[in-house]
């Protein structure tokens, strides 16, 4: 009824049209807004029904994951966006010039819409969508949409309100342009909105419906129209297929998922599923069509309840559906589920209950059911059916049936018998007694319970049935029994005879009418489905969520147990056997909840003890309510700082209030929520930073600012990675590579002001120097990062041996955000604060003030702030984000949530603001203090000890005035000690110094460089590679290398400087250290680029550098892997006394390539220069019977002239049709362009070929995925992905692990099979290419 909001606009629009004097005054568009909104609702509903029908059948289904009630509730407000659009359309019509009195058609308007949608709308949506997948926006907005993996058509419009507004503004571009240019028309606007609805619904419908001939007829359509499978991949993979409706921008920017075409083909070929078990059901009342899973999603997800006003409102649609099913001549699939590898389906007979009661319809019904049974029989299913002689009729007609018919009588009787309280001594049997009633009566009589039959005819039937009821079966003389077993045909008159407190337990499929308010009505026989029963998101008639009728459960249990007999006609199973099997398969007993009315009947002083997970509502003040089953946790259970409960003071009033606004617009919901928050702010229980309000249609979620969260209640703990919503990154980090561009206006203005100043008095040097100071801080921090990583890699004076992972690098990648924030604040202070501009270079009194204030209030306040942050309440919300890093890096010092960052800024501002306010500030004092804090912060987190012992022995009091890296490192490992900022005096004063501080300091100073077991010798590649080293830029090193021209242009001065430095630096250096299976691994870098290896005049210098590295490694007893210069043979000849073993990794590199080639391959093309790896690959493939065609005639002759036995499988290539190309060095662009579409290029060199062809696949260079036990990997090896290691490097590690005491270099190679098996044995995994 939420569309009633348009009543105020529909009536005036109709009145205006009626009262208009001519066509010029009539505004047809104004009148058609509401009908168009209703058409959109109908459009969406048709898509919902179609999608659910097709996915239930399984034909062309894309994602097999089921839908649950949570998703249905989350998506129940899908029509809110239609209401919002309607409101905006009415407002636009009323206040915008050109938006009223629109013509029906204008061609130019259509052209504008098409062009603007293909251009700016698709383009802007693409980049907006990519931005929404950034973790900052994703966690706050877009994750709500992506909560649905298996999508439904309405999933397309389920977004947070802010995101909904953004999309509306985006789609408004063509519409507003038409209005402003005077080209708008009713047809163009309605056509565009219908197009967006259609494409949105199609993209989320979860079944493929675009036929293949569409794209084969018009190939460019592939870039102009997506398919359901294309967008479905976006919901599965998250990082691909971002486009709106036209995939052209995905192809343009390389974000197309490589499996898009494969999934499209697979989905189109997918046939209907053959079910194992079929539940045959039918419609009940005329309203039941809406409560089907194929009907209204929100109605189907709730138990059926008759509403006269709904029936009155929907009667036209009810009549139409009644006529439709009359002519529809076969059953249809309404639901599919999976349970314990069984496929279940529900088939609906298109007839109502009234048809089953009409004798003349029996023949028609029999035909429909018989057709369904035969169809199910052809699919090998078990079928449960309910009427028509309980299935015996069809067995007689078709004795050849392989399916087993199950009517569920045994389980139904078992459920009813187990529903009767154990202390019951007598029951009343009412209504017509079916075979279920017979079974129940017999079971109760055998248990000693007296069964009184109300109807004399039914009593006589029971007596003459041949069953041994004994004396316990009697004819009822009165109606005093408290338990009534109700069959069909119980009249109102009979029911009204029941005494107060009677319990009605039906044993039929339909419950009796509830006439008596002082009696209790049990549900029809039913059980709770286990959680493993997938895809349940609709209620079965009047039953609660995830509750299934006993008849339906019986068929499932029959199939699970594999009972190969019918259960229909007069056949029944043992009730105990069926009941035990049902419970064993996870079905649970379901009882009706305690109602408010029932509570009011309790005597004064009654104690309510719940045995469920949810407590009853506290209605009675004169009774006692116990908690739900719970126990007090022991003190040893740590980190408990949240309550496992919900405050009833909060839930009750909000539930009552929110239920009143059910169905209202989102605006009303939010306003009501705010009122509730103000009314009940003292009793809020916050989940993270959200308030959850229970409502009939789901939950209202609103995010509170941190201040409100602290003021209005406790919060439950969330992940350290998110650090709630208070981290600097999560509060509004500038998601931009060049985030410093935000300072550009101030930089330009400061430079302009200095240039235009007329003298020294007007010149503000401090204003100009803010940006250089910020850049100096960035450089200062980067030097500390590089120094720390270099020293910890060598191991000398290292404090903590724990490795760093990619998660820590990602968490700390925004370390320079606080510098940008400080820069903004400095510029603002300079502009608006008196005394903060035109500062002198030096003032001594300012320095003294800074020193005294830092030693006094700053250190003191920080100490107590820090201790407060370690209280569990604040620690879990704020400081835990900083302490996520045990092995710290210098930049760890500035990784804090935003609120904590602000607190520190205010703390460090005390000396600076004091100088400004007292007029003693100077450029030198401010810049020195900031540099001091950066230096001490970086030093305290660098993870290696660098303060020499003589410093403290020369001046002992310095121990209280300066901490050391080891001192603060203990704070990160012990948590509850060493709280001080930079001066430990307050730790000594308040007794929080860690007792092991001095010992760790001594130990760290004495620690020597590590002697590695295995050394990987590598070199720089391009001029940009220096930044991608582990010692370079941390965030770049943690991602695969990719050339970016703009980055190269921006960094060329530093690149030139580093190149000169590498030229003069005369020895290799350590860049990385790892541990694996008790082996110590190190990577050493030769300070030369790839270009040096190609210059003949540099060979002597290179040989010297590598030889020096080998001799140094030899003195440490390591195994060395090296790459060039005769594959190591040169150094063995020069140094025959070498104890180290040189491993060039050729065997493993060849094995990786051979195992990367698909098994069904019959021929490959060998290209480029063929190294010994190429020889080994060619020989292995020829011996396997694969034809190897050499592209180059010279290389072919070399292979033929070698001693290897290639046989007839080695040939000279006559064409380039081979689909597998093995690529060596020297492959030219011209040669590569000859490759046919779909060719896979697999390099066997250390450098990949240039990617020229978009229709071909490029495998990575030989590499393998590192096992998880390989520690301290947090940088990428060149262009390889995270935790992927080149085969040459892996070979050295495996060599050391296996203890092979021989060289592998020169012409020596190991057995490829032996090396491959050893590599897999040690946990390295092959890296495959998805095609």
From TrEMBL:
GO terms for biological process: lipid biosynthetic process. Pfam families: CER1-like_C, FA_hydroxylase. The chain crosses the membrane at residues 82-104, 110-128, 165-193, 765-785, 819-839, 846-865, 902-930. The keyword Ligase does not apply. It is found in: Membrane. InterPro entries: CER1-like_C (IPR021940), Fatty_acid_hydroxylase (IPR006694), Sterol_Desaturase_Related (IPR050307). Residues 116-255, 853-992 form the Fatty acid hydroxylase domain. GO terms for molecular function: iron ion binding; oxidoreductase activity. PANTHER family: STEROL DESATURASE. Belongs to the sterol desaturase family. This is Fatty acid hydroxylase superfamily. It comes from Theobroma cacao (Cacao).
């Amino acid at each position: 009824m939420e569309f009633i909001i348009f009543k105020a606009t529909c009536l005036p629009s109709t009145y205006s049209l009626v009262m208009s004097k001519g066509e010029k005054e009539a505004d047809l568009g104004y009148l058609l807004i509401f009908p168009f909104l209703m058409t959109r609702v109908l459009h969406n509903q048709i898509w919902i029904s179609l999608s659910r029908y097709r996915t239930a059948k399984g034909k062309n289904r894309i994602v097999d994951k089921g839908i649950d009630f949570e998703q249905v509730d989350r998506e129940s407000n899908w029509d809110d966006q239609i209401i919002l659009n309607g409101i905006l359309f009415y407002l636009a019509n009323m206040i915008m010039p050109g938006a009223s009195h629109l013509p029906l058609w204008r061609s130019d308007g259509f052209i504008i819409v098409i062009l603007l949608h293909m251009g700016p709308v698709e383009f802007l949506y693409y980049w907006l969508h990519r931005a929404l997948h950034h973790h900052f926006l994703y966690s706050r907005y877009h994750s709500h949409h992506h909560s649905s993996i298996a999508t439904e058509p309405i999933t397309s419009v389920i977004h947070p309100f802010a995101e909904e507004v953004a999309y509306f503004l985006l789609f408004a571009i063509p519409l507003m342009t038409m209005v402003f240019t005077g080209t708008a028309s009713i047809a163009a606007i309605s056509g565009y909105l219908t197009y967006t609805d259609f494409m949105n619904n199609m993209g989320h419908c979860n079944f493929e419906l675009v036929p293949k001939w569409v794209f084969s007829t018009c190939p460019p359509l592939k870039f102009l129209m997506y398919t359901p499978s294309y967008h479905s991949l976006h919901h599965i993979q998250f990082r691909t297929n971002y486009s709106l409706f036209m995939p052209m921008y995905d192809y343009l920017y390389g974000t197309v998922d490589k499996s898009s075409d494969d999934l499209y083909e697979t989905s189109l070929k997918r046939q209907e599923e053959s079910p194992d078990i079929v539940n045959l059901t039918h419609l009940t009342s005329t309203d039941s069509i809406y409560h089907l899973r194929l009907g209204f999603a929100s109605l189907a997800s709730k138990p059926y309840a008759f509403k006269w006003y709904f029936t009155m409102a929907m009667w036209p649609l009810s009549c139409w559906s009644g006529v439709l099913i009359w002519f529809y001549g076969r059953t249809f699939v309404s639901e599919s589920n999976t349970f314990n590898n069984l496929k279940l389906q529900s088939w609906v007979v298109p007839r109502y209950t009234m048809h089953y009661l009409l004798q003349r319809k029996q023949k028609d019904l029999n035909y429909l059911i018989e057709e369904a049974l035969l169809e199910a029989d052809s699919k090998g299913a078990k079928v449960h059916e309910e009427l028509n002689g309980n299935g015996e009729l069809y067995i007689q007609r078709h004795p050849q049936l392989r399916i087993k018919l199950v009517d569920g009588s045994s389980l139904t009787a078992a459920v009813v018998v187990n529903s009767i309280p154990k202390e019951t001594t007598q029951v009343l049997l009412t209504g017509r007694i079916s075979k279920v009633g017979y079974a129940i009566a017999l079971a109760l009589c055998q248990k000693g319970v007296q069964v009184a039959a109300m109807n004399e005819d039914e009593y006589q039937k029971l007596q003459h049935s041949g069953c041994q009821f004994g004396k316990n079966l009697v004819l009822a003389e009165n109606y005093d029994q408290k338990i009534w077993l109700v069959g069909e045909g119980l009249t109102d008159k009979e029911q009204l005879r029941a005494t107060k407190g009677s319990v009605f337990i039906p044993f039929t499929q339909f419950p009796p009418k509830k006439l008596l308010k002082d009696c209790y009505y049990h549900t029809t026989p039913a059980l709770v489905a286990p959680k493993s029963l997938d895809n349940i998101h609709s209620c079965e008639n009047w039953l609660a969520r995830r509750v299934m009728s006993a008849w339906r459960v019986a068929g499932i249990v029959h199939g699970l147990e594999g009972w190969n007999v019918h259960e229909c006609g007069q056949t029944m199973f043992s009730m105990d056997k069926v009941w035990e099997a049902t419970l064993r398969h996870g079905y649970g007993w379901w009882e009706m909840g305690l109602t408010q009315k029932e509570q009011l009947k309790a005597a004064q002083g009654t104690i309510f003890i719940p045995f469920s997970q949810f407590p009853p509502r506290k209605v009675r003040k004169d009774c006692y309510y116990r908690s739900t089953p719970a126990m007090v946790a022991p003190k040893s259970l740590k980190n408990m700082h949240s309550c496992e409960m919900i405050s009833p003071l909060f839930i009750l009033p909000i539930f009552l209030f929110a239920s009143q606004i059910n169905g209202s617009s989102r605006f009303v919901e939010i306003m009501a929520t705010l009122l509730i928050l103000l009314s009940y702010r003292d009793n809020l229980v916050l989940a993270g930073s959200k308030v959850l309000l229970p409502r009939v249609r789901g939950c209202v979620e609103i995010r509170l600012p941190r201040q409100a969260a602290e003021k209005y209640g406790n919060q439950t703990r969330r992940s350290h990675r998110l650090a709630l919503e208070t981290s600097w990154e999560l509060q509004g980090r500038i998601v931009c590579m060049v985030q410093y561009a935000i300072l550009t206006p101030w930089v330009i203005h400061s430079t302009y002001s200095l240039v235009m100043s007329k003298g020294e008095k007007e010149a503000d040097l401090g204003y100009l120097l803010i940006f250089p100071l910020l850049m100096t801080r960035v450089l200062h921090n980067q030097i500390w990062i590089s120094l720390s990583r270099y020293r910890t890699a060598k191991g000398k004076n290292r404090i903590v041996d724990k490795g760093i992972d990619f998660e820590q690098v990602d968490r700390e990648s925004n370390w320079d955000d606080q510098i940008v924030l400080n820069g903004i604040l400095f510029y603002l202070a300079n502009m608006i604060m008196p005394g903060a501009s035109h500062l002198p270079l030096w003032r001594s009194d300012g320095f003294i003030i800074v020193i005294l204030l830092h030693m006094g209030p700053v250190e003191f306040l920080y100490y107590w702030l820090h201790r407060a942050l370690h209280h569990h309440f604040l620690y879990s919300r704020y400081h835990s984000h900083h302490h996520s890093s045990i092995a710290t890096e210098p930049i760890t010092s500035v990784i804090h949530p935003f609120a904590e960052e602000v607190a520190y800024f205010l703390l460090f501002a005390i000396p600076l603001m004091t100088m400004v306010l007292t007029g003693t500030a100077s450029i030198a004092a401010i810049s020195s203090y900031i540099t001091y804090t950066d230096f001490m912060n970086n030093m305290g987190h660098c993870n290696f000890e660098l303060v020499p012992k003589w410093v403290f022995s020369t001046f002992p009091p310095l121990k209280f005035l300066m901490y050391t890296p080891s001192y603060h490192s203990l704070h990160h490992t012990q948590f509850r000690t060493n709280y001080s900022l930079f001066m430990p005096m307050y730790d000594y004063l308040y007794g929080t110094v860690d007792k092991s501080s001095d010992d760790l300091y001594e130990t760290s100073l004495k620690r020597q460089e590590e002697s590695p077991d295995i050394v990987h010798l590598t070199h720089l590649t391009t001029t940009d590679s220096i930044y991608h080293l582990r010692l370079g830029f941390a965030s770049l090193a943690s991602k695969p290398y990719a050339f970016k021209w703009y980055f190269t242009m921006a960094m060329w001065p530093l690149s030139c400087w580093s190149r000169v430095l590498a030229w003069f630096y005369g020895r290799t250096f350590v860049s990385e250290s790892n541990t694996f299976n008790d082996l110590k691994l190190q990577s050493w870098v030769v300070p030369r680029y790839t270009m040096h290896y190609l210059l003949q005049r540099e060979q002597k210098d290179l040989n010297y550098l590598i030889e020096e590295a080998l001799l140094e490694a030899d003195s440490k007893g390591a195994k060395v892997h090296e790459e060039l210069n005769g594959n190591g043979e040169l150094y063995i000849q020069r140094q025959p006394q070498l104890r180290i073993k040189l491993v060039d990794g050729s065997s493993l590199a060849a094995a990786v390539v051979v195992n990367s080639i698909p098994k069904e391959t019959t021929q490959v093309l060998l290209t480029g220069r063929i190294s010994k790896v190429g020889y080994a690959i060619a020989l292995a493939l020829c011996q396997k019977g694969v034809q190897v065609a050499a592209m180059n005639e010279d290389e072919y002759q070399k292979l033929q002239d070698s001693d290897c036995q290639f046989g007839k499988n080695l040939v000279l290539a006559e064409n380039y049709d081979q689909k597998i190309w093995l690529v060596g060095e020297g492959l030219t662009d011209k040669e590569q362009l000859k490759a046919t579409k779909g060719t896979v290029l697999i390099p066997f060199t250390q450098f990949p070929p240039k990617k020229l062809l978009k229709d071909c696949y490029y495998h990575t260079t030989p590499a393998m995925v590192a096992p998880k036990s390989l520690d301290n990997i947090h940088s990428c090896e060149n262009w390889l992905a995270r935790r992927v290691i080149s085969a040459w490097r892996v070979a050295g590690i495996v060599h050391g692990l296996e203890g092979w005491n021989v060289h592998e270099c020169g012409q020596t190679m190991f057995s490829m099979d032996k090396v491959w098996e050893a590599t897999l044995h040690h946990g390295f995994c092959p890296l495959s290419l998805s095609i």
